[in-house]
Design a protein that fits this description.
- The protein contains 9 helices and no strands.
- With 185 residues, the protein is mostly helical.
- It has 2 domains: 94 residues, Orthogonal Bundle (Rna Polymerase Sigma Factor, Chain: A), CATH 1.10.1740; 81 residues, Winged helix-like DNA-binding domain superfamily/Winged helix DNA-binding domain (Arc Repressor Mutant, subunit A, Orthogonal Bundle), CATH 1.10.10.10.
- Helix 1 packs across helix 2 and helix 7 crosses helix 9.
- The termini are far apart.
C-alpha cells in the first residue's frame, strides 16, 4: 500500500471512521498476526495480540507520526512490544510456580494437640522418609501436585517436560508410596 493510503486510513480512523479500521485490518492483519505468531509460538495468543494491536491503533491513532516511521513499521513495533510483554508475563508466572522442598515442608507445619502432634509427627516422618526414597524427578512432581495443588499441565510447564511424563512420574510415585506406607501384614 502507498504511504498516502496509509495516511488516509489513519486520518479517517482518527476521526472515528470504523470502516477505515476495517480496511486497514483487512490489509495488515496477516502481517501483524504472523509476527506475533513467530514471537509467541502460539496461535491463540497471536490472535489476542493482533486484536490488541488494532484496538490500540483505534484508540491511539492520533499519536501516529508518519515522519517517524511508516504505518507498517509502527504497527509491527507495537506488535513486537505487545508480544514480548506477553512472553515476559508468562516467564514471570512460571517463576512464581517454582518452589522448594523446604517451602512445602514449612507449609505443612500447623499447631495441633500433643496427641495429634505425636501421631502427626510419626506419620509425617514416615511420609518424608518415603518421599526421600523417590527419585528427585518423581518427588518434585508429587510435591507440586499434592502439596502445591498444581495441575499436570502446570507441572509440565514448570519442569519443562511433556504432560504424559508428569502423569507417569506421579502414577509410579504413588504406587511406590502406597507400597512403602501401607501397613505390613
Amino acid at each position: 500500500m502507498s504511504p498516502q493510503q496509509d495516511q488516509d486510513w489513519m486520518d479517517r480512523i482518527t476521526q472515528g471512521d470504523s470502516d477505515a479500521l476495517s480496511e486497514l485490518y483487512d490489509h495488515y492483519h496477516t502481517l501483524v498476526f504472523s509476527l506475533a505468531r513467530n514471537i509467541l509460538g502460539n496461535h491463540h495468543q497471536a490472535e489476542e495480540v493482533t486484536l490488541e494491536v488494532f484496538t490500540r491503533l483505534w484508540k491511539h491513532a492520533a499519536t501516529y507520526n508518519p515522519q517517524k516511521a511508516s504505518l507498517q513499521t509502527w504497527m509491527l513495533r507495537i506488535t513486537r512490544n505487545l508480544a514480548i510483554d506477553r512472553l515476559r508475563a508468562q516467564e514471570s508466572e512460571l517463576q512464581k510456580l517454582h518452589w522448594s522442598w523446604e517451602e512445602a515442608q514449612a507449609q505443612s507445619q500447623t499447631v495441633k494437640s500433643p496427641e495429634a502432634e505425636f501421631t502427626s509427627e510419626t506419620d509425617k516422618q514416615q511420609v518424608h522418609h518415603a518421599l526421600d526414597q523417590l527419585s528427585e524427578d518423581q518427588k518434585e512432581a508429587v510435591l507440586l501436585n499434592f502439596f502445591k495443588g498444581y495441575s499436570h499441565q502446570q507441572i509440565a510447564e514448570v519442569l519443562d517436560v511433556p504432560v504424559g511424563t508428569v502423569k507417569a512420574r506421579i502414577r509410579l510415585s504413588m504406587k511406590k508410596l502406597k507400597n512403602w506406607l501401607s501397613p505390613k501384614k
